[in-house]
């Protein structure tokens, strides 16, 4: 039996080498990254587009592949690129990553970080693009 990696509802992850707070979302099929964060981290190239159905309707979003490190595990995964300015977290981890051996513990708390972290979408405003 393979050992599963335990994550909480929120995790501090490395996305292309930058520490970012992410929301863990078992209801999302594919992970999403804010478009400004994608520019900041120079994610790309765009490898295609994905049809996405959300509470706001359906549409198409560009897709990139990026390296994410969650709980010490590095994974190359697809991310939809979308404006997440109205949402608290600029990064959402969906089932395309969670299915690779992760379990969610609703009681798990984040450890305080001494490193500079992008904690929420508002932080992107103060970061020079």
List keywords for this structure.
129 residues, mainly beta, Cathepsin D, subunit A, domain 1, two-stranded parallel ribbon, 3 helices, 11% helix, globular
Structure, explained:
With 129 residues, the chain is mostly beta strands. It has a single domain (5-124), classed as Cathepsin D, subunit A, domain 1 (Beta Barrel). The chain has 3 helices and 9 strands. The strands form 2 sheets. The protein has a 6-stranded mixed barrel. A hairpin with a 2-residue loop joins strand 2 and strand 3 (18-24). The longest helix is centred in the N-terminal third of the chain and has 6 residues, at 35-40. It is globular, with a radius of gyration of 14 Å. It starts with a strand and ends with a helix. The mean pLDDT is 89.
CATH architecture name:
Beta Barrel
Nearest-integer average pLDDT: 89
Please list the strands of the largest sheet in the order they lie side by side. 2-3-8-4-7-6
Subunit arrangement of the protein:
single chain
Can you tell me the overall shape? globular
Radius of gyration (Å): 14 Å
- Residue share in helix: 10-25%
Q: Topology, pairings included?
A:
Elements: E1 5-7, E2 10-15, E3 18-24, E4 31-34, H1 35-40, E5 48-54, E6 57-70, E7 73-82, E8 91-93, H2 95-98, E9 102-104, H3 123-126
Parallel strand pairs: 1-9, 3-8, 4-7
Antiparallel strand pairs: 2-3, 2-6, 4-8, 5-6, 6-7
């Amino acid at each position: 039996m393979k050992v599963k990696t335990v994550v909480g509802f929120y995790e501090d992850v490395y996305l292309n080498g930058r520490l970012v707070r992410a929301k863990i979302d078992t209801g999302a099929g594919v992970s999403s990254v804010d478009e400004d964060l994608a520019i900041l981290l120079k994610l790309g190239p765009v490898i295609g587009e994905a049809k996405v159905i959300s509470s706001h309707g359906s549409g198409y979003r560009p897709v990139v592949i990026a390296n994410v490190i969650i709980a010490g595990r590095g994974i190359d995964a697809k991310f939809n690129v979308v404006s997440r300015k109205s949402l608290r977290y600029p990064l959402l981890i969906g089932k395309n990553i969670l299915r690779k051996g992760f379990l969610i513990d609703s009681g798990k708390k984040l450890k305080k970080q001494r490193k500079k972290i992008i904690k929420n979408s508002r932080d992107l405003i103060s970061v020079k693009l």
